[in-house]
User: Which sequence fits this backbone?
């Protein structure tokens, strides 16, 4: 693990990604201490341009709410949604994929048809429908994102498990009479994990984008300030007040970019061929 | 008089008359207007959506029109008399009015329309409950006899409330499936020509209109443009000349108003007087407590909502009646923005931070922002508000099934408290299934009696006394939290003249409108 970390930091893109993400996490954790008032509070006149009032560097929105405070509180929502929905889809995708790959045959067929069922439906459309049915709230959004994003995990894990289960050390474990789940858990999964980690880092980015898109369409949690909500609410006034949409838009762009850079870096770091060359 | 003097006088008369001609209405021209959203149908006897009324009001006509002060004006009736006991209304119909297909309009059409609308038009049915009988002694006379005097009766003949329906096309048919519904035939100044669904509705001048010399405009195109920003752009690029009230977002109004050759008016909604308030569930939860409801009124900064969310349009509502409604009084308890007083009242009410669910009205940005502002006002005084996101069907269902604590709404008031105000407060109107009745569940026998008496009291002075009393009681009890008298500005090119002249504005305004070249 330490090696991976070292490799990641040797990759310039990875360093930038880690740096940005660290800042974003710090903002999400400690920002509300610096901005104790609610981001919904109306603090100045509406449509105040950025850099005109010292304590409102990014200006105010259509109701006179602080755009800076919105971005800081939005970081919390975006990162939380990204993280939790990714963990949730891993929790579904890994066991399903592992079972399909390990047991093969009918189990594999059944699980893969089930997975394909989800893969054939356009994921964003499905997410919209799910959130609309369940009523927009943070729980329904995380659930919807998890439901639409687990199939790639399942397929990836299945492929890895399929190739690993014929390895000799796995055969050896079978011969020594270990139970199937123990073999999957102890012998196969640890070796299948590196591509999953890369995928997961990209999934966090996708989840943030999905949440932003849902909020943009007005399907966000109406009680939480998120970046997508800010872009969506500012869209109609973009000709009068560009800053309401541009700054949260930049926040989304930067954090998604950071996660992609990290994913890229992890991919290189975990790739055995590249890793050997670097050592 | 010398010859010279006569010449000068003649010249002056000529000059005056040409000047008058230059200022008078000009014939000809095409108007492009926006209609938002696209109406489901133009048969106003069956469907009464806002956009339906707006287009159909220029195709169909009622017996009367109404001035901005809501005084009756001649429509299909050229004159009318009311008997001394207030029970018999006699209408003389205009001579020479014809349907768009050439058939004459007569008193039998009026009788038929009454029967038609009793079946299809819920509000008309309600307006006609006091009607005992209606008769047509001759082709151009109609006599309405009431069971008892009903003051608001003279106010029910507007085109959206009681449109005249052609008997020769509908008699003996199934009204809802009659193919004539797709090609509406009225007596109005404009005739239906074509409807490209999703694109535009085209009306053309009625050359045989019963008011000589009208209409002036040749054609009207009503464009359907689903996106609010695109509607503003359509006006800016010159594709449309008329933006009826509510068709662009409020924050676009100041920008559009500043454009060259652009005129804005808030007039033309007096008959409807859209009144906004928060439904407060009087049955359960913190909102069942009168002190809590009063606290809400003090906690909400309605002036700020008017200035920021509505760009200064409209007026802070003082009570159940809009200020344009008959017998309105401002002599009621006042609820100015006062968070300290709100907190004190909350304490008295014994509120302990229970969760309060709030439903915004899902009608676009303005309403969403407004709900966010009110939520902030309420949170500031310590009320634990949870906003519930809904779409239009969800909102309708939740409100009509009483599944809410606080819900935004606005309703039309139709000029008279007996027509558009009482329905929201009398206990006989408590019934699940409608978002327009006494949704809050307020029940007060005294109010029931006042509204029952007020509808049939005679003469006007007696009604005024009753309604003043009712308003005072309601404002004290706060069954709902009144917010603003809304104003929907109509934006037009200044060259479109005389469009908004009545209490329903654009809905029947094209009759008198003309274009300056």
Assistant:
């Amino acid at each position: 693990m330490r090696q991976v970390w070292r490799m990641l930091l040797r990759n310039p893109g990875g360093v930038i990604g880690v740096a940005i993400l660290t800042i974003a996490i710090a903002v999400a954790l400690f920002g509300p201490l610096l901005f104790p008032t609610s981001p919904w509070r109306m603090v100045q006149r509406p449509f105040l341009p950025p850099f005109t009032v010292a304590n409102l560097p990014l200006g105010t929105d259509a109701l006179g709410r602080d755009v800076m405070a919105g971005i800081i509180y939005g970081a919390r929502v975006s990162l939380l949604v990204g993280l939790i929905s990714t963990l949730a889809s891993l929790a579904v995708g890994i066991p399903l994929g592992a079972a399909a790959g390990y047991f093969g045959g009918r189990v594999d067929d059944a699980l893969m048809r089930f997975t394909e069922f989800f893969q054939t439906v356009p994921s964003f459309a499905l997410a919209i429908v799910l959130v609309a049915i369940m009523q927009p709230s943070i729980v329904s959004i995380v659930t919807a994102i998890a439901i639409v994003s687990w199939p790639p995990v399942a397929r990836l894990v299945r492929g890895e498990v399929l190739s690993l289960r014929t390895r000799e050390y796995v055969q050896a474990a079978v011969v020594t009479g270990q139970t199937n789940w123990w073999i999957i858990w102890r012998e196969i999964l640890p070796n299948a994990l590196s591509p999953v980690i890369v995928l997961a880092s990209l999934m966090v980015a996708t989840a943030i984008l999905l949440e932003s898109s849902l909020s943009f369409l007005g399907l966000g949690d109406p009680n939480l300030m998120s970046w997508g909500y800010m872009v969506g609410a500012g869209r109609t006034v973009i000709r009068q007040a560009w800053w309401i949409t541009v700054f949260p838009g930049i926040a989304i762009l930067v954090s998604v970019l950071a996660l992609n850079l990290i994913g890229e870096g992890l991919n290189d770091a975990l790739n055995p061929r590249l890793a050997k060359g670097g050592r | 008089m010398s010859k010279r003097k006569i010449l000068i006088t003649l010249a002056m008369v000529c000059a005056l008359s040409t000047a008058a001609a230059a200022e008078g209405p000009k014939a000809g021209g095409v108007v492009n207007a926006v209609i938002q959203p696209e109406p489901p149908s133009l048969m106003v006897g069956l469907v009464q959506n806002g956009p339906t009324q707006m287009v159909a009001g220029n195709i169909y006509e009622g017996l009367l029109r109404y001035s901005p002060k809501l005084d009756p004006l001649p429509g299909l009736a050229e004159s009318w008399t009311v008997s001394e006991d207030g029970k018999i209304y006699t209408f003389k119909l205009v001579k020479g009015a014809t349907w768009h297909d050439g058939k004459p309009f007569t008193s039998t059409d009026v009788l038929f329309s009454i029967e038609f609308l009793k079946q299809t038009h819920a509000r008309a049915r309600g307006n006609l409950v006091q009607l005992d009988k209606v008769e047509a002694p001759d082709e151009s006379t109609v006599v309405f006899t009431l069971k008892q005097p009903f003051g608001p009766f003279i106010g029910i003949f507007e085109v959206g409330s009681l449109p005249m329906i052609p008997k020769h096309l509908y008699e003996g048919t199934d009204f809802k499936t009659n193919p004539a519904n797709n090609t509406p035939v009225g007596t109005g100044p404009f005739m239906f020509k074509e409807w490209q669904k999703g694109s535009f509705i085209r009306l053309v001048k009625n050359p045989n209109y019963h008011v000589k010399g009208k209409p002036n405009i040749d054609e009207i195109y009503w464009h359907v443009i689903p996106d609010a920003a695109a509607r503003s752009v359509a006006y800016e690029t010159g594709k449309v000349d008329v933006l009826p009230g509510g068709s662009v977002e409020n924050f676009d109004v100041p920008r559009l108003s500043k454009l060259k050759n652009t005129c804005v008016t808030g007039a033309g909604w007096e008959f409807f007087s859209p009144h906004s308030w928060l439904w407060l569930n009087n049955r359960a939860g913190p909102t069942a407590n009168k002190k809590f409801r009063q606290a809400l009124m003090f906690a909400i900064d309605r002036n700020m909502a008017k200035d920021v969310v509505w760009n200064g349009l409209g007026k802070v509502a003082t009570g159940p009646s809009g200020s344009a409604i008959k017998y309105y009084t401002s002599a009621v308890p006042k609820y100015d923005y006062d968070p300290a007083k709100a907190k004190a009242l909350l304490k008295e009410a014994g509120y302990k931070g229970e969760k309060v669910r709030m439903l915004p009205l899902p009608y676009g940005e303005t309403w969403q922002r407004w709900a966010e502002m009110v939520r902030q006002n309420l949170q500031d005084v310590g009320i634990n508000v949870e906003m519930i996101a809904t779409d239009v069907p969800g909102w309708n269902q939740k409100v009509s099934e009483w599944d809410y604590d606080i819900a935004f709404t606005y309703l039309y008031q139709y000029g008279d408290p007996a027509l558009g105000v009482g329905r929201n407060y009398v206990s006989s109107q408590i019934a699940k299934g409608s978002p327009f009745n006494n949704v809050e569940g307020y029940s007060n026998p005294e109010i029931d009696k006042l509204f029952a008496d007020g509808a049939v009291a005679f003469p006007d002075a007696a009604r005024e006394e009753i309604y003043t009393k009712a308003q005072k009681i309601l404002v004290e009890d706060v069954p709902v939290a009144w917010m603003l008298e809304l104003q929907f500005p109509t934006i037009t090119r200044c060259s479109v003249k005389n469009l908004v002249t009545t209490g329903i504005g654009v809905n029947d305004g094209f009759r008198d409108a003309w274009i300056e070249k």
Summary: The first strand of chain B starts at residue 30 and ends at 34. Residues 122 and 472 of chain B are 29 Å apart (CA to CA).
